[in-house]
Design brief:
It is a single chain. By secondary structure, the protein is mainly alpha-helical. Helix content is 71%, strand content 8%. It has one domain. The longest helix is centred in the middle third of the chain and has 33 residues. 29% of the residues are buried.
């Protein structure tokens, strides 16, 4: 079921949004300072291509890690995060038009939240049943 969901997702929105994430990663990687943002954007771009069967969780950090994540998230939001979130929200609206597209709309909403604040998050595989 995950494979079928991922294939449908890829065709009807995942490819476009994944390329958007990779474009943001390439723009970030053009400078030495932007490399940490580029790594995060490539990682989330890959997740955006095939999201079913994986989930995003908070990464456990100490106080210093939370401060660095907050700083990184603020910079990311100002430069790239808001337009990626808008793309996911627009895709969610388009997916929510049909009943079959509602699970895909929910996934786009989750990715929109991740687009706003990607630092301090980790992508893990979900348990198999």
């Amino acid at each position: 079921m995950r494979l079928l969901g991922n294939i449908i997702w890829f065709v009807f929105g995942g490819l476009l949004m994944g390329v958007g994430w990779w474009f943001a990663a390439v723009l970030s990687a053009l400078t030495i300072v932007g490399i940490p943002w580029a790594v995060a954007a490539f990682r989330i771009g890959n997740f955006s291509f095939w999201p079913f069967g994986r989930e995003v969780i908070d990464r456990p950090y100490g106080a210093a890690g939370r401060t660095l994540s907050l700083t990184g998230n603020i910079i990311w939001f100002l430069l790239c995060g808001w337009w990626l979130a808008l793309g996911h929200l627009a895709s969610a609206l388009l997916c929510a038009v049909t009943i079959i597209g509602i699970p895909f709309a929910v996934q786009h909403i989750k990715l929109a939240g991740l687009a706003l604040a990607p630092f301090g998050k980790e992508i893990v595989r979900t348990a198999r049943f």
